[in-house]
Each structure stands twice: as structure tokens, then as C-alpha cells.
Amino acid sequence: MWRTPPVRYAISGAMELWSAIIGLTSGATTHVTADINNLSSSQSYTGPDAVHIADVATIFSKFRERIENLLSAKIKIFQCDGGTEFKQIMTHHTDITYRMSCPYTPEQNGMAERKHRHIVELGLANMFHADIPLKYWDYIFESAVFVINRLPNSITGLISPFECLFKQQPQYSFLHVLGCSCYPWLRPYAQHKLEHRSEICVFLGYSTVYKGYYCLEMKSGRMYVTRHVKFDETHLPFKSQEENSSPEPIPFSTTAVLTVLPSEPITPEPLQQQQQFPLLSPHTPAVQQHVQPQQQATNSTQNMDQTAPTHTMLTRAKTNKLKSKTFPDHQIYNSEQSKSAVFEPTSYTQASKFACWRLAMANELTALAKNNTWELVPPPENSHIIRAKWLFKTKLKADGSIERHKARLVAKGYSQQEGIDYYETFCPVIKPTTIRVVLTIALSKKWAIKQLDVNNAFLHGDLEEDVYMEQPPGFVDPTFPSYICKLRKALYGLKQAPRAWFSKLKTFLLAHKFVSAQSDHSLFILQTSTVIIYLLVYVDDIIITGNNDAAIQEIMHSLDNHFSIKNLGDLNYFLGIEVTHQNNSLHLSQTRYLKSILHRASMTGAKPCQTPMQTGVQMSKYSGTAMDDPQLYRFIVGALQYATITRPDLQFAVNKASQFMAVPTDNHWQLVKRILRYINGTLNHGLHLKPSAELALHAYCDADWAGCPDDRRSTTGYAIYLGHNLVSWSSKKQATVSRSSTEAEYRSMAVTASELTWLISLLSELKVNSTQKPTLWCDNLGATFLASNPVFHARIKHIELDFHFVREKVVNKELYIQYICSMDQIGDVFTKSLAKSRFTMLRDKLHVSENTPSLRGAVNEELSSEMEKSSTG
What we know:
Layout: E1 2-3, H1 14-22, H2 56-71, E2 77-80, H3 87-92, E3 97-100, H4 110-130, H5 137-148, H6 161-166, E4 181-184, E5 201-206, E6 213-217, E7 222-226, E8 229-232, H7 237-245, H8 297-300, H9 338-342, H10 348-351, H11 355-370, E9 374-377, E10 385-386, E11 388-396, E12 402-411, H12 432-444, E13 449-454, E14 468-469, E15 484-487, H13 497-511, E16 515-516, E17 523-527, E18 532-538, E19 541-546, H14 549-563, E20 565-570, E21 573-574, E22 577-582, E23 585-589, H15 591-600, H16 630-643, H17 651-658, H18 666-681, E24 685-689, E25 697-703, E26 715-722, E27 725-733, H19 741-765, E28 775-778, H20 781-788, H21 793-796, H22 805-811, E29 816-819, H23 836-845, E30 848-850, H24 856-872
Parallel strand pairs: 2-3, 10-14, 25-28, 28-29
Antiparallel strand pairs: 1-7, 4-5, 4-8, 5-6, 6-7, 9-15, 11-12, 13-19, 13-20, 14-15, 16-17, 17-18, 18-19, 21-22, 22-23, 23-24, 24-30, 25-26, 26-27
Helix pairs in contact: 4-5, 15-16, 16-17, 19-20
């Protein structure tokens, strides 16, 4: 069947405004007026009827009959504004309670107003996308309502309003792009067999009366309603008409022009008069481009484009509540610098509009040219050319303030081919346990701890392979535009770049009499008769400490001459870890990092709880229904893994959550939310390190038995102390099933002994010798007897031989095994969920405490200084 689009004129009220703007109206008016009030029901389902405002009373009567018949429930409350059209409803339907918003107070009817806007915006977006004429707006708005009713939303628990009402999931396979070309089957409409079986039409939406599509035949203006349609969603007829009727575009040159990057905003000039920025040509050595000093970066921030957007507009949510204004701590909204702080460009085009980012790119290119990173060559035949990209990052200080704006040219290494562009990629980094051990030694011996950062570290690595890359985006050499860069040095993004940089640094340190530790290859040790220096490397971040400040300064000077380093002073912010110095002790925390996790999970305002896990609850991988967004679960749990570097109190809960990464369910997500609530109440907590007179190792190991309800495997947990400080801990499910609690504890003891053996080797290389042998505390008598004597042979004959090396350590007196009662077992916190009192007690023994630096020292210093001034005065 077909019908001509209805033309109806407004009578009064809001319809007069729509008529004046659009020129005609149609039955779609209901979707922006009266029938929207059915949103007051618990299921937000927008009615599909087309009405005039003058017909509200009649339509509401029909709507009431339909909804009460559908839901077998009575309408009790009717929410509306003060429109006169609703007075007829009040007169005829006296058994309903009416609620009206105050005059000129639309926010009191927020749900209807928000849905009104939702429908209008979706309808207009569909029209503008396909350039559909305004006279068809009723069909488009009707289709918008049709789609909205089938979209999951947060109000209905991420299910669609359609499913709420009809208890079945809607079908999405029949949805198509509005305004696209379609070909309806027209044989039934043909007057004879020689007519076309179909004509090209425009798809204008879905019929709510017929189970079919609206198809507009543009030549005759007929509107067909049919279910037999073929769609071509790549072709938009109305848009094609406008493009064909538009004037010819003005041709422009796409040749990239290379320009200087000044610290002031660029004024448009003729292309022939722009100064060109030289890159490395095939006939000249590396060119050093003059740029302004780095200290001008802060001032240049104020000269950025004033028209750039500074924030994203916040809109009212569908729940009739305003969105919470949660901003990152480092964003300073009351200054001009906030424009660059908030906005981190994603491309050269965006970055070129800001003076601070232009200067950052200039500094990066200068460093590349100074380092002789590449040479321009003609593209070799059959060569694999890697593309390049600009990355931009606002570097922050520990307090969240802006340190500098960093631009980095990177290679798109994901396109590299193994065996052609690279061979080996492994690069060692310092272990967190090694960092804690070195910090403990430095504190105990009262050594200064310095922090260094290598500028453009990866650019110092030498490449062994022939790697070709395109010229930097926005900086193509106009003399040789078709040439490519043959890389001489490693570049960020290359798969082999970390390995090449570490090899270069290692060669330099070995030449300066450092020795690479065998227990941790990123630890370098310099020892002479009077000097001992430790140097820890994590990619381009370096910690250096030792007993001779002059020797440390000499090493830092040599590093600066060879690589160009930045001396960051005393250790205060390393790899996202905030280091606070407190009365000859250190407090390691990750407050800012944890806040970012809470923000990502939308739990910044969550109610805090006292423990990370609820007691008495066994988590199974089969419990609950699958999450709609498993990526969020994996992201949050992965981020929490890094947080355990300074938060051993989170280790067991995070390890438990990590076991459900494959198919997380809503029950597992509740576990993660519990962890986040605990974090929200302990944001300032961290690991406390203090000096120790005796640097001896002692450890606590524990295991539950068959704690996993799915595979009945046990969990191993241990805590190892160096002196007073906790330096190593773990919570991990065992690889095999244990037949008894003794076996589970014995396996845990073996794992702990392995870690102790590695720590003994590390301390030996660090030249730290203790008169005391390591002690391992276990709360299972059977396991302690088994470690000392080959008892219970019938129960342990199936245990792998490598676990029996514990007995060998005990026989050789390299390890002491001692029994400890379960109440004093610190390892309990790594194997099971605990009640508040016991958890808090064990957390204190882990030396996890709140960062509350005392102001008493500062106050005393201030008072003494004032007293000196008064006495001298």
C-alpha cells in the first residue's frame, strides 16, 4: 500500500511554534508533546501515536485503556506541566492524582523534558546525516521513537524499554540507515507485467501499524509500506542530490609545507614566504635547528589559540539528576594554562594550534637532529616503510602541577615484520622487590637517594637492522618530499627500541666499572675499596644511591655528558609511586594513581568500607550472569595489580578478582567494587619503610586448603621482611591440588624458600651480609616436621622432587623453619578474607599506614627561626 505524507496544521500551544519554524507538521507531534508523559511509569516506554496538542484528552483516554490492558495496572499519578491542554484530562479522569510543575520551572518535569530533547536530537541527527527534507520530519521522529524504545539504558538496568514492557528482547536485524536507498518489491502494484518490479526509493522509517518499512518514491512522492525491501546503506539519495547541485570545489595543493614552530601564534602568510624547517638531507649532516630555551615553555602556554575549546559540555542525565563534576586533580581551570593542560592533542593538526605544543615539537625535532637519528634516502625497492606519528603528553609533578608539555615522534611499530625490521625485543626492568630492598639498605645506612630521568632515552640506542620510516607528519622536507628516513638510532615505538637503549646504557655503565647484578639485570653496582653505589634502571628512569656523594655526582655528570639527563633531586615520584620523606623514613603510596582508577570506574563518591573482601563468601567463576562490559572489569583489575606494589593489603583480594578475567560476571564485579570502596577509604595509605639496625631476612608463609570451589586448589601466601621492612609478598593459587593441609602448607613453604634464596643472592651482590640466617615461620606443625625430617612418606610420596629442596636448605643450615601459632601468622592476610579487627591488626604488621606527615618539625623550625630573628633584632 502507499499513502501521501499527511500535512496537518497546528492549532495552539507549542504546535504553533513548530509550525512557524518547519512550515508544516504531522502526526509525529506526539513524540515531542503529550504522550511523553507515559515516562512517569517505571518502564520508560515512549508511545508511538501521532497526535495534536488539541487532541491530548482524546488520545490520553485511548492511551490509558491500552496501557491498563497491557500491564493489568491502573494509572495512579500523572505528572505534567501547567499546559492548558492537560486541564481536559483532569476534568475527565478524576480518579488519577495529578502533579504539576510550577510555572516556568521545567526542571520539575525533568524526565519528560529530557526525553523530549532525546527524541528531537536523535531525529535531527538522522535528518542532517542524510539531508532529508524537513517536510518528512514526522516520519524521522517516529522512527527515532521506534529506535529509542529498543535501546538499552541505565534507567531500566541496561535493558530496553521494549523488553521491560513485553518481556522479550527486541530484534535489531531489521534496523537500517535512515535516508538510504531502498528497492521495495512493487510487482503487486504494477498494472501490467512489463512495468518495473522495483523503483529506487528512500527509506524513511518503520511503520508502527504495519510490520514494514516506509519507502518514499521520489519521482511521484508515493509512500510505500512493505516488508519486502532491499537496502543500499552506502547511498543517500537526498545527500547525493545536494552534492550534485553544489558548486565545484576550489582545488588546493596537498603538498606538505615545512614551517618553523615559533613560540608565538602563527600568522598566516603566503606559502612562498614561509621559512622552512630543515631535516636531515642526503647531502648534509644533522642540522641543529635553533629553538627558544625550554624555560620559555611556561610563558608560551599563555599565547595559545584563545578560541580552542577548554571543556566538554555537561548535559543532564536521563535520571533527571545532574552529572557529578569530577575533574582530575592536575587540571587547573582558573588559569590560562588550563587550556593546554586539559587538552592533549591527538594529531599534528590539533597540536599546531597551541604555542606550547608547537614548541614541544620543535624541541623534539632538535633533539632528533642533534642525535643524528636518521638520514633522508630514496625509497629502496621492496622496502618496508613504517609510518610515523606524534604523541603529546602533559608531564606532571608529584603534587599534580604542570611540569612541561612533551611531544614525542614515534614510529608505528605495530606494522614491523619480525625477521625483517627486528629480531630480539626483550628488555629487562628493575623488579619492585629490588627497589624496596635498596631503599631499605639506603635508609639503614643513611644514604642520599637521587632520581634521574634520561631525555629521549630510546633515541640513544643503535639499530642493528635497516629500518625505514616516512618523514614526520607536518615536517616533510620540501626539497626531498618523496624521500624516506633511514633510521640510524632507535625511535620510540619500534619494537626493538627498549632493548637497543638498555644495551647502550649497559655498555656505558660497564665501561665505568659498574657490574650488572645476576639476580636483577637492571641493577648495576659500583664497588671500590671506599665507594659503593647502586644504580637501578627502569627504562629511562634511574634511581642512584651510595655511600659517597662526590662519586655519585661524578657518575651523574658522566651520564649527562653522554646521554643528557635530568637531575630530579631526591627521590619523590618514581613510576607513579609517591615517595614521602618522614623523619629518616619513607612512605610509598599511589594516591593519585588510585584516584584515577576510582574515576575510571565511576566510584569516586563510593561509600568506604573497612575491608577489601567480605568474609565467608566463596567466589566461583560460575556464579552470576556475564557482564555486559568485560573490558571494564579487565581494565580495573589490571590497574589494581599495579597498585599492589605499595599496597600489600590489597594483594589477596586483587589476586582473587584476577582469576575471573576470562568471563567476569556481575558477582565478580561486586567483588571489584568492594575493593574500590575499601580503596576510597584508604587512599592515603601506603607502605612505610624505616631504618633497621640488623638487615636480616625473616618470612611468614601460609596456605588455605582447597579454597577454590571450582578446582579445589589452595592459595599460597607469604610475607618477607628485611629488618623491619616488608620487601616481598605474594598471594597466588597453587598449580596443583593438595591432598591435605600439610601438603598445601609445604608447597607454600617451598615457594617462600625460593623467594628467600633469590633475596639472599641479591643481598650478597649488594654486599650486605648478615650474621643471622633467614627464618621461615609456618603455622602447620606437619609441614615444619616434614621440612626437617622425611616423615609422612605415605602422604608425600607424590609431591614433586623440586619441592623437597626446602629440606636441603634446612639440613645445610641455610634456612631455619620455626612454628608460629595461627593468631600471629601474618601470611593469613594473603590467603583468606578476614574480619575487620584481624585484618586491621595484620595490616599494621605489614606496615601499611596512612600518610600523615607530622608538622611538628616544621613548626619547631619556624618558631626557632622567629626566635633567632627577635633575639638578633
